[in-house]
Amino acid sequence: MARIVMKFGGTSVADLDRIRHVAAFVRREADQGHSVVATVSAMAGETNRLVALCEEAGPPDPALDVRGVEYDAVVSSGEQVTSALLALVLQKQGYRARSWQGWQIPLQTDSAHGRARIQDIPPQNLSDAIDQGEIAIVAGFQGIAKADRIATLGRGGSDTTAVALAASLQADRCDIYTDVDGVYSTDPRITKQAHRQDRLTYEEMLEMASLGAKVLQTRSVELAMAYGVNLRVLSSFVAPDALNPGTVICDEEEVLEQKIVSAVTLSRDESRISLLAVPDEPGRAAHIFSLLAEHGVNVDMIIQSPARTSGANISFTLPASDLDHAVPYLESAKALIGYDRLVADRDIVKVSVIGVGMRSHTGVASTMFNTLAERKINIHNISTSEIKISVLIDAEYAELAVRALHQAYGLDKGVA
Ligand code: ADP
Ligand code: ASP
Ligand code: MG
To answer: Of all protein residues, whose CA lies closest to atom 6 belonging to ligand 2?
Structure first.
């Protein structure tokens, strides 16, 4: 008898019919004698609706609350509804099921409301329940922070709930059910040529998640890697007894066929700030990036180049969602930093190619740059790590670039 954590995303629980459908997946595991903890997202679109309501209702200065405690109290409610509905459906079908909110477990987080990190999940309460044959249905995305306030784990956070529960309960499997039948070589919405990968390494999946493949929240992959969680992504849009192998995320040794490039990703949540003519002297860059760090702005690609007039141009990327938050801090420090002009740019995207095989093969970068050059796509910034190359390009070429690269690395269906 195994311990299994299952997670169902928003489209998988979009209405009562779909909730009844996922109940069949849960029953299937329970009927085989397994102990089951299932965690759910809010119904598709519900979290967006709740976020919009907060933005309309809340104070204009986000620091006053929009991303704070009341925001979390509102946006966490979607998962409260679906967890209890799934429990009700299972009860009606004769199963012992109970919903669990974050505070009831308790799933303890830090106080970074809106993007809280899980600090601890004492396993006792859930263990006791499932050991007594109950099916535990956990509201994803939420936990309890200091002062007993509800905190949410950032968008897509139910994936992290699932993996953290699996780690805490030492589950045998953590199955993430979604609206695609696994992790693809690129977002299947961008090209029909994308294909499902049987296996990916934790490292590849981590890069993919952080570079735009929204199928798993980045933090969930970090946790899976750290705790060796046996993670799988598979479809809830098939019959519960259908063949459904999904994609297994595992250690490198368990991936037999290592491709040079396994995936192409696209991140649209990108923006760029350029500070022009910053005095070229020690301490200026330190000043800029300390200021941003102090205000929780996550900076990515950084480029410094000589300015045409005097000094240096410093340009860096940051999530588009952080741009409006970051600009005022830089503008108010203009005199101290000493730059001449600030230019903010939203119409850019990041396209990346990822694969563990890159470690041992040359020519990956030149294929990327040649492919983009042939399509007359200009590269603004480049960044690399051992297993990925990312480029910043104009947003209008986003999909063209993904399709061209997908083909260039032999990932198109039938070829791969
Ligand atoms: P859920 O609601 O189940 O959490 P998400 O919408 O968060 O689902 O994630 C699934 C979606 O991720 C898919 O519908 C797909 O469009 C998108 N996606 C992006 N990149 C990939 C990829 N490489 N493989 C699979 N899905 C991807
Ligand atoms: N409902 C939350 C969101 O839409 C969490 C999740 O779906 O994982 O971001
Ligand atoms: Mg998701």
So the answer is: 156
